[in-house]
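Long-time lurker, first post. I've been practising inverse folding by hand and with some scripts of my own, and I keep getting stuck on stretches where the structure tokens seem ambiguous. Below is the full token string for one chain I'm working on. Before anyone asks, I'm not after the true native sequence, just a reasonable design that respects the backbone. If someone could post their per-position residues I'd love to compare against what I wrote down in my notebook.
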């Protein structure tokens, strides 16, 4: 009989000798990748747990190692699975076989998910956040399933050899320990140059590097590296004012050269100009080149860099809201081979970034980048003693407080108008979302489209865009400036030449018939609207040129004109300018951005957000008119005035880049584009004529026109309060709460406190719409305080600051940060403390002194240079017996308080030198539309 056992084929060993070598090779590689994975996962977990970035250069090396070992494992694992399957596929232990198949499937899933996360350029790039997140967690979860299935596979197979597992574990833990030790090494500290003067190198700028060392220029100028993955963001940035912030901007070049020259001649060093460099010239500044008096501001590799990608995105902290570049910048940790010139290594670096973008995002995009405080670092300025050699502190431009203390931000209790929803940062306006395929693109809204924030930083610098020959950027700025930013309203006619004359308003739909031979005042209103969150204008207010042009004509005959332009492109100096007329200490105008000479303004015609400015124009109606009168009003904008542009043209050197529009030896006529921001026009009949005028309408509600007019008059101070009250009475007659509430402001300013109380009471009864609860509480509080009702005043002011209604929460309002009202509350606490005299009342007195102290300290957290708070703390600490702190705040109050005596001398000199500006600085200004000299000026051209 045949031997059946002899005929039956023998099972090959599941893992024979040849395969065992491969098996141990796989195990060795698994030890490496498991140890590596534990390290990577541990860092990731700690980052999540501690909410801080722990990844560094070594982490990225280990991540690259993770990818390489993963790719290497593909070969031996694939071979092992193939041979092992061939040896075991016919085994009777089908359970072990099935578990093996499942294990193989999960291993393949692990490899596939890993490859998908790598995002290989040109082959497969997973960008959608949700898809990428799903694949990531699949990749994280599959190793756990693999361990479980492997254990199950071995349970139904040969007996486990636990000693092998012990060796595996010991080797893994040893490698993890070594990785942890190496994690704390930082190659950025190797062979790094340091300023000889330490952190004093950065003064008077408030900027600092995290280490106190210089940052290599190549690190700060790596913009092309950023462009590879962020092409759309780079496209916006490369034509932005941020890019051209430095010596590559001809306007700034002339200004900073003068500042450096003045500083060197005065101090034998250019250190004072560091004040400019922290924001404008970060690359030469932080790399150490800026301090050289012989610095080549044209040809040095850092001179043309501007504010680079890394400059902003490497900032790690904003210590305060003092501005003047008060930020901390750190040399960022890059992925391996970020600066390599080798194409293969550059490709590897790119794959690393795409495979592990979270580290890149955490390094270069922090929560502070989304905050208004981040923008405050360079959009809030004070001039230090080192620069001016005058005072320790002079306030310069200040976008930050202007926005932060506005109704637009939802922080200003006292605002005249409020938006439906508050804006909590600058991004919605200046970095709007745009559709993009960049790797930073994300789902920001409900459109389900990937978007980024536009890095053009759209604003108003049409001048720079013109000089750089970028017409599309001019167009972008123009569209931005004309989007619900500002408007003009030809509001009324006064029958006479005085602001006390009878007012006919609002003009339209009815208009008055003008009498030939009579004189009138045209009442104009400029109003800032929803899309303007800071003063109009801000920034370079001394050189920004914004003016009203008003043309009065009958048929083709011009009978009145203001705001015209001469043949040299100079605007008539007797026009109404919306600017700041800034002076030096000798009364000369600051006309070339010479910051070191800034002393005091002769006047400031800036308009706060959500407010208005009322302007008066005189017109004498000729007796021989035969046609109706047309009044055309336009608000024009030109980035730099002609005086400054002429200085720029004359100051540039032959080796400098050519200035567009300038021919050497010829007079430079300001060619910058003029943008008409707003326009209004009206037809007025003339008595004795038969010409009919068609119906005219205004799109502005009548109550709002009265309100805007009244606001413009109120904000002039005490000179036109009676006229403001008349305007607000008309608002009240329309049934709006704004009328009595604003009347209360007028009465309070005039000291008519009982009438103010009555007006607030009337405002509180309004139903549709209701008056803002917070503004009513504030107004009641300041009136009660003046009347000596301190308990009621405290209740009112606390309510205004700290009550939170559902409507306020829904609209994003937080009035607890209105530091002007916090000061009012602190002063009222102090008033109560002073009332409680004598030893027996000491506990009550000290209680209210401490309350006052705490409120004043809140103010200084929001505005460290607040004069009122420092003066208040000087008084409070003196009463508490803390004389040392009282003296500290007395000194700070002296530092931040304007020097009124000194500025009087400069203003007196300026009034003689500049008659037109002197006229514009008067409490009541009436612009004459029929000045004889104005006839030489023609209509201002516009870039429309």
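-- Answer (accepted) --
I ran through it position by position. Result:
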């Amino acid at each position: 009989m045949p031997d059946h056992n002899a005929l039956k084929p023998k099972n090959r060993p599941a893992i024979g000798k040849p395969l065992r070598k491969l098996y141990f090779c796989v195990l060795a590689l698994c030890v490496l990748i498991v140890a590596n994975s534990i390290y990577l996962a541990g860092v990731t977990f700690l980052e999540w747990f501690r909410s801080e970035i722990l990844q560094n250069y070594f982490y990225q090396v280990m991540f690259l190692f993770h990818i390489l070992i993963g790719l290497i494992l593909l070969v031996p694992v694939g071979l092992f699975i193939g041979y092992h399957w061939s040896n075991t596929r016919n085994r009777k232990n089908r359970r072990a076989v099935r578990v093996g198949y499942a294990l193989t499937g999960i291993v393949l899933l692990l490899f596939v998910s890993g490859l998908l996360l790598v995002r290989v350029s040109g082959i497969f790039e997973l960008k959608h956040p949700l898809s990428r997140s799903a694949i990531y967690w699949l990749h994280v979860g599959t190793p756990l399933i693999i361990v479980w299935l492997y254990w199950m596979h071995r349970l139904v197979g040969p007996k486990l050899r636990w000693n092998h597992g012990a060796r595996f574990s010991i080797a893994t833990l040893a490698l993890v320990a070594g990785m942890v030790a190496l994690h704390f090494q930082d190659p950025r500290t190797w062979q790094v140059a340091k300023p000889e003067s330490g952190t004093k190198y950065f003064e008077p700028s408030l900027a600092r590097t995290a280490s106190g060392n210089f940052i290599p220029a190549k690190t700060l100028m790596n913009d092309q590296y950023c462009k590879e993955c962020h092409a759309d963001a780079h496209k916006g940035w490369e034509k932005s004012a941020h890019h051209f912030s430095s010596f590559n901007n001809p306007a700034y070049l002339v200004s900073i050269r003068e500042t450096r020259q003045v500083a060197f001649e005065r101090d034998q060093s250019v250190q004072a100009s560091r004040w400019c460099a922290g924001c404008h010239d970060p690359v030469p500044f932080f790399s150490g080149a800026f301090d050289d008096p012989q610095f080549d501001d044209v040809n040095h590799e850092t001179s043309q860099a501007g504010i680079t990608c890394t400059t902003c995105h490497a900032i790690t902290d904003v210590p305060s809201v003092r501005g003047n570049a008060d930020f901390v910048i750190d040399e960022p940790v890059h992925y391996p081979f970020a600066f390599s010139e080798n194409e293969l290594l550059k490709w590897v670096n790119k794959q690393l970034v795409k495979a592990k973008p979270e580290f890149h995002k955490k390094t270069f995009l922090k929560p502070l980048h989304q905050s208004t405080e981040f923008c405050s670092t360079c959009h809030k300025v004070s001039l230090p003693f080192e620069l001016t050699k005058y005072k320790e502190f002079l306030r310069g431009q200040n976008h930050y407080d202007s926005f932060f203390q506005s109704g637009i931000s939802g922080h200003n209790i006292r605002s005249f108008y409020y938006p439906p929803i508050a804006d909590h940062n600058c991004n919605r306006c200046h970095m709007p979302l745009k559709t993009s395929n960049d790797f930073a693109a994300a789902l920001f809204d409900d459109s389900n489209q990937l978007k980024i924030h536009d890095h053009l930083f759209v604003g108003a610098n049409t001048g720079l865009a013109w000089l750089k020959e970028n017409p599309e950027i001019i167009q972008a700025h123009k569209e931005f400036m004309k989007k619900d930013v500002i408007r003009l309203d030809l509001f009324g006619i006064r029958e006479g030449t005085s602001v006390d004359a009878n007012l006919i308003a609002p003009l339209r739909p009815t208009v008055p018939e003008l009498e030939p031979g009579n004189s009138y005042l045209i009442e104009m209103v400029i109003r800032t609207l929803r899309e303007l969150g800071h003063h109009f204008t801000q920034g370079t207010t001394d050189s920004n040129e914004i003016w009203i042009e008003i043309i009065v004509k009958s048929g083709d005959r011009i009978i009145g004109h203001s705001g015209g332009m001469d043949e040299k492109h100079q605007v008539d100096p007797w026009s109404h300018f919306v600017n700041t007329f800034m002076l030096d200490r000798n009364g000369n105008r600051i006309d070339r951005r010479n910051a070191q000479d800034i002393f005091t303004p002769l006047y400031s015609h800036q308009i706060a957000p959500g407010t208005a400015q009322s302007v008066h124009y005189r017109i004498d109606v000729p007796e021989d008119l035969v046609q109706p009168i047309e009044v055309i009003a336009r608000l024009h904008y030109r980035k730099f005035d002609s005086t400054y542009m002429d200085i720029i043209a004359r100051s540039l050197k032959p080796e400098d880049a050519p200035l567009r529009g300038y021919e050497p030896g010829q007079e430079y006529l300001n060619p910058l584009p003029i943008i008409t921001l707003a326009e209004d026009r009206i037809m007025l009949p003339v008595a004795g004529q038969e010409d009919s005028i068609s119906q005219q309408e205004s799109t502005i509600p009548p109550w709002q026109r009265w309100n805007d007019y009244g606001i413009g008059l109120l904000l002039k101070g005490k000179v036109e309060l009676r006229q403001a009250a008349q305007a607000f009475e008309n608002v009240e007659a329309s049934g709006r709460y704004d009328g009595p509430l604003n009347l209360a402001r007028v009465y309070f300013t005039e000291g008519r406190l009982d009438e103010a109380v009555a007006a607030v009471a009337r405002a509180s009864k309004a139903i549709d719409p209701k008056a803002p609860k917070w503004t009513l509480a504030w107004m009641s509080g300041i009136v009660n305080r003046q009347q000596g009702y301190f308990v009621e005043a405290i209740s009112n002011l606390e309510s205004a600051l700290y009550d939170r209604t559902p409507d306020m929460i829904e609209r994003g309002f937080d009035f607890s940060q209105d530091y002007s009202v916090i000061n009012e509350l602190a002063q009222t606490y102090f008033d109560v403390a002073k009332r409680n005299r004598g030893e027996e009342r000491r506990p009550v007195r000290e209680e209210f002194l401490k309350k006052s102290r705490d409120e004043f300290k809140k103010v200084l957290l929001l505005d460290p240079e607040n004069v009122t708070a420092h003066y208040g703390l000087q008084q409070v600490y003196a009463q508490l017996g803390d004389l040392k702190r009282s003296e500290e705040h007395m000194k700070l109050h002296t530092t931040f308080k304007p020097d009124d005596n000194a500025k009087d001398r400069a203003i007196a000199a300026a009034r003689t030198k500049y008659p037109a500006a002197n006229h514009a600085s008067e409490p009541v200004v009436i612009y004459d539309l029929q000045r004889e000299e104005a006839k030489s000026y023609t209509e201002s051209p516009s870039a429309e």
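A couple of notes from the structure itself: The first strand starts at residue 208 and ends at 209. The first helix runs from residue 4 to 7. Happy to go over any region you disagree with.
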